[in-house]
Write a structure and sequence with these properties.
Two copies of one chain form a homodimer. Helices cover 25% and strands 28% of the residues of chain A. Chain A is elongated, with a radius of gyration of 25 Å. At the A-B interface, helix 1, strand 5, helix 6, helix 7 and helix 8 of A face helix 1, strand 5, helix 6, helix 7 and helix 8 of B.
Chain lengths: 573, 573
Amino acid sequence: MTSKKLQKLIRVARGEIPADLVLKGGQVVNVFSSTLQKTDVAVSGGRIAGLGSYLGRETIDCRGLFISPGFIDGHMHIESSLLTPANLAPVLLPSGTTSLVADPHEMANVKGLEGIRFMLQNSAGLPLEIFFMAPSCVPATPLETSGAILEAKDLRSLLRRQRILGLGEMMNFPGVLAKNREVLGKISAFRKKIKDGHAPLLSGKDLCAYVSTGIGSDHECTRISEAREKLDLGMRVMIRQGSQARNLKDLLPLVTPSNSRRLLFVSDDMHPEDLMEKGHLNSVIKEAVAQGLDPITALQMVTLNPAEYFGLSHLGAVAPGYQADLVVLKNLSSIEVKAVLKKGKKIAEKGLLTEKITPPGRRPSLSSMNIKGLHPDRFKIPLHGRRQAKVIQLIPDQILTHTRVCRVQGKSGGLHLDPGQDLSLVASVERHHGTGNIGLGLVSGLGLRRGALASSVAHDSHNIIVVGRDAEEMYLAVKTVEAMKGGLVVVTRGRVRARLPLPVAGLMSDHSAEEVRAEKKTLEKALLNSGCSHKHPFMILSFLALPVIPELRITDRGLVDVDHFQIVPLFEN
Amino acid sequence: MTSKKLQKLIRVARGEIPADLVLKGGQVVNVFSSTLQKTDVAVSGGRIAGLGSYLGRETIDCRGLFISPGFIDGHMHIESSLLTPANLAPVLLPSGTTSLVADPHEMANVKGLEGIRFMLQNSAGLPLEIFFMAPSCVPATPLETSGAILEAKDLRSLLRRQRILGLGEMMNFPGVLAKNREVLGKISAFRKKIKDGHAPLLSGKDLCAYVSTGIGSDHECTRISEAREKLDLGMRVMIRQGSQARNLKDLLPLVTPSNSRRLLFVSDDMHPEDLMEKGHLNSVIKEAVAQGLDPITALQMVTLNPAEYFGLSHLGAVAPGYQADLVVLKNLSSIEVKAVLKKGKKIAEKGLLTEKITPPGRRPSLSSMNIKGLHPDRFKIPLHGRRQAKVIQLIPDQILTHTRVCRVQGKSGGLHLDPGQDLSLVASVERHHGTGNIGLGLVSGLGLRRGALASSVAHDSHNIIVVGRDAEEMYLAVKTVEAMKGGLVVVTRGRVRARLPLPVAGLMSDHSAEEVRAEKKTLEKALLNSGCSHKHPFMILSFLALPVIPELRITDRGLVDVDHFQIVPLFEN
């Protein structure tokens, strides 16, 4: 703070002049001493001036209520919400989340530094304070064509940006262990900054090696023993509770008063409808408390703990000098949010925004749609006679896949799919550089009987992924995605039945959360009427091209055998 | 770390190449999970590479022993030890202290920025890692002549120094509350850095105001209620246990598993003989454990907790990537230190240094002795007849003083001291700028029957303080201090009986700890044979000129009424 701001804050704190706002008579959640304190909270110039008995030009009656620091999500991919930062803010703020640390990994894979700058611009000055980690793994692998490549020298250019706190989750733990030059260069460039980790099941000496580089967190733990080992080695364990990956129940027994300072709750990836219907960190705290965690400990895990880890010394507590990001709660069991204040201004009440959020800067336009050589024939697999083919076999309720070898046969027009068979064509269409790359394969377990589904959300390179039973329909689906500059589309019986445009890098909508939810509902309705029996086919699609999760994947360069980390032919010899 | 260093660390961590050193079979104090872990500790290039089973080119057998992170003293004035940083290191290292955060407040009051630079130079590259806080209150008051004045603009020049972590204890809390421009300028200059506090008994709204400026710690708490209030407001409470001020017993009941992360043990001021005979933080932990504190919690309070507060992310834990500052302990009850490693090298064993410490740079010479107009007559108080005089009345076992009004009488040669009266002359002789200032007063309660004592250690301006019954002897004492370029001296019966030279700014010896202890012993012996009945007269002397502690003090400008913060005449009207 400048001297002038300090002066005013001191005057308010001492009671020499009235506060801008006083929250009267509530119980403050004291995250330092893990206690509740009945006291007024005086706010001035966006900061907390004092706790005690205060007069203010405005007051909020908090009798019978609890006052918590604003919630901080320490690890979130905004892109998974399909919303731009500016459109996400109105969804998160009423739930009590006032800050988050985002890893714009998806955006960076599509648009590189330009994409990161967009995320910074689109979140500048929002009442939801968004910090970023510089994506460490763009692209995730050399087995796919991503929109951008970020090398250590590119990331270095982000070091001095105020809202970039460090290096994003280092998913390439094999690269770390192999002492890959580029990987170590990135870690070394961020040696004075926070470095997030991502190392599922890594253990023992390999985990030691990974941690020795200064990587300070992990949000991939699924078992207590794994979490305990990582905690013991000094990692902040981020207990993830997102839309899909939900580790709270399994990891909660780990938490004790003696170790909780090193633990956080994070969401990682959240679907927009979950955020709107269930909430965000508020619902995680509620679940944790329902499962027996002390509410103050739970609140520390989304306030003081992330603030300490990320060095956000102005956030995470209700105390003099801290930014007045406050959540007024009806109780500490259901964590019902009554009101939310950001920098001392009421921004939400009873689940509704009380102030309009003006998106910063220009309307988002960040197209990445450069497809060449598209033709229905490109989705046909040439085949004469019978052959053994490798099929991506989905596993129910998992994103892991198996490799199944299946006898297929050719007819006129190439490979022919038997109507009774749960087998579809799958293709990954390169969309960033007009390479004309299309990788072709087969997938089983999706329950698609007819039609085609296409999406520009396909981790991590976000080429267009399309599944279908018919080359013409697949072509139509991809052409529709292209025309929308990205998005999701359902085609059945030769016609587009529903679409969800995602024109911002092919990842995010430029519509509000309400609109996106409505569009998603329409899409789901069309899915019900389509020939697909799978509950969340687009979620499955989004992972089919991710060549770091075993066992068989498809990228624009072809089928990937993940275990051997190489492109393999579709047909067996 | 650079990529190259990372590479090697990874290789060692993975067991691909042997470690430099392995501590085998000990129990590691895990400060993250508050547990003990039986495991080897592999060290490479001064860092911890891994925990697990390792081979090393060297090993240390730690079976039956405990391995703690090196201790960090979060607040210490090196000058109180009378030793230079380079001479303090051999004393602290065998006790387990491997790092400390020093506030060179005394040095700065004498020599300003030059003094701070000296402290930086004299501690550069030592195996005892010394960080500094920029002294915030130089001078402490305008009622005395200090050697230097440090304004906000001067302190700003220190901001980019790597080992300067923030702003030193802001003792001028009245200045903060009064919104003093210079004070707020200093705080504002260090807004992105740590700011230490010092606010004894400050409470309520004034404490809120003080804390609202971002001041993050306090080491002046004497009562639980005071400590709790400060903790609740977000301050790190540093429980001080020094040579004189000892708050451990009173504050220990505050510590719980739910709040201990915000608590530290610090020493503040330690006499050299205490450090040599009792130890440093090791003895504080021992005491705390003896009083019932969990040993792991106690160890966290001198390892992870200070490291977190000061943002020293490479220190404070035994985990991969952390600096290998390790203390091998025989047990967790008496905290008996078996061996100490700094950056992976054994530096001490069984209380003795195992490697010679080479003092960095040139031999210390930092004289500050510029006295003008000295003459025996200047120590005489002109008085004819009888008058009422203000006398500094000492209070047993306290550094507070009272104002006592006393009838005195003049003879030829001025004020005459009755032989039966416990009354001495006291003078503060300006020594920095040759102003010729000498402040004169009277002190009672020292039990001085004859002779004179003089010292160049006199908080905070460190002018020469001298007490005596006779002007000639006082003159001799001051002249002797001047000739030594600083130090302590005992004069009786017209002769110098003992002296302890402190030529480094008049504050520190350039001798080793052993030599200083011997010199101090000689001094104490001379004191026993002198006419002084007080146990620690030099300690009392050192506070007589400190015009921020009530009630009556003496500076080179005269008698100071601390409560009214002004110079007052010796005689009543």
